[in-house]
Recover the amino acids of this structure.
């Protein structure tokens, strides 16, 4: 690893901690940045960099697959809510985030969505 890469990794680690502090403060980003003398443009620049690094750190979609297939019965042909086009077959709640999945979603889409949801705090 060259010195430029080491310096970038060091700054990335510093900004990860800054972003974590800001998020856990309960303040808006602009208020927190003003209080700590940080330019909001710099904050958002490094937020984008941290997110990109997190995505790159995710395991590839090939290889060991931690997702276990689940066999679910198909909905009946009655007029229940499972047959309505607007209903979802699976609803996941994670804090303030709600994810609704239909049986027509591809396995790759579900897998990548669940990988992203692992990083939601």
């Amino acid at each position: 690893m060259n010195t430029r890469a080491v310096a970038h990794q060091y700054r990335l680690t510093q900004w990860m901690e800054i972003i974590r502090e800001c998020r856990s403060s309960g303040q808006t980003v602009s208020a927190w940045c003003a209080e700590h003398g940080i330019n909001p443009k710099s904050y958002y620049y490094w937020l984008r960099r941290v997110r990109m690094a997190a995505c790159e750190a995710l395991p590839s979609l090939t290889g060991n697959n931690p997702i276990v297939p689940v066999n679910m019965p198909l909905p009946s042909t009655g007029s229940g809510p499972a047959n309505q086009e607007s209903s979802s077959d699976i609803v996941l709640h994670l804090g303030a985030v709600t994810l609704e999945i239909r049986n027509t979603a591809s396995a790759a889409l579900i897998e990548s969505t669940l990988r992203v949801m692992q990083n939601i705090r």
In short: The first helix runs from residue 3 to 25. Confidence is low (pLDDT under 50) at residues 79-84. Strands lie at 90-94, 97-101.
